């Protein structure tokens, strides 16, 4: 009729079965030890990751603050620049300065300004060279030009300054 099976005590196992069970128990213990070690390593790694994340978040927050400060400083500088530029233009309009250093031949601000040494008049180098190829006299006062014109560094620097200050 019905068979009932009962588990045999370990003592009744043969040597092979006992050896297999013993090996399996050892493997289970080794695996539990490895699992515990991996679990500890993972917890350490997680703690390091959390710490690094917190440090990075702090760094980002710090940099965002610096960026905001830099943007505010830049805005202040631009406001000051615009105020100063307007004040300068009110005091001495660019057109007035350009007129004072304009070439009497082309009526534009001088390009590579040169000066006639004898009379002191200033012209664009190209305009004066072309003029002197036709007539050897100053286009403004008609004095004879004997020596080669000299670079007018002062007029050149004023033009550079104008180009720097007055940004269109």
Automatic annotation (TrEMBL):
Pfam families: zf-C3HC4_2 (PF13923)
Single GO term (MF): zinc ion binding
Highest taxon, organism lineage: Eukaryota
Lineage: Eukaryota, Fungi, Dikarya, Basidiomycota, Agaricomycotina
Organism for this UniProt entry: Paramarasmius palmivorus
This protein's name: E3 ubiquitin ligase
SMART domains linked to this entry: RING (SM00184)
Keywords from the named record: Coiled coil, Metal-binding, Zinc, Zinc-finger
PROSITE patterns linked to this entry: ZF_RING_1, ZF_RING_2
Domain RING-type: 103-142
Coiled-coil features, chain-numbered ranges: 21-73
């Amino acid at each position: 009729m019905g068979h009932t099976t009962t588990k045999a005590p370990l003592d009744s196992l043969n040597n092979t079965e006992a050896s297999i069970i013993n090996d399996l128990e050892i493997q289970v213990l080794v695996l539990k030890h490895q699992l515990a070690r991996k679990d500890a390593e993972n917890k350490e790694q997680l703690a390091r990751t959390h710490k690094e994340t917190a440090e990075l978040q702090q760094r980002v927050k710090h940099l965002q603050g610096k960026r905001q400060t830099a943007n505010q400083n830049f805005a202040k500088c631009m406001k000051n620049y615009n105020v100063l530029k307007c004040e300068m233009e009110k005091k001495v309009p660019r057109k007035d300065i350009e007129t004072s250093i304009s070439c009497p031949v082309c009526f534009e601000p001088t390009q590579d300004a040169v000066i006639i040494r004898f009379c002191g008049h200033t012209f664009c180098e190209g305009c004066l060279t072309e003029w002197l190829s036709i007539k050897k006299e100053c286009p403004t006062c008609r004095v004879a030009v004997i020596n080669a014109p000299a670079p007018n560094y002062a007029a050149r620097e004023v033009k550079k300054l104008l180009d720097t200050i007055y940004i269109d």
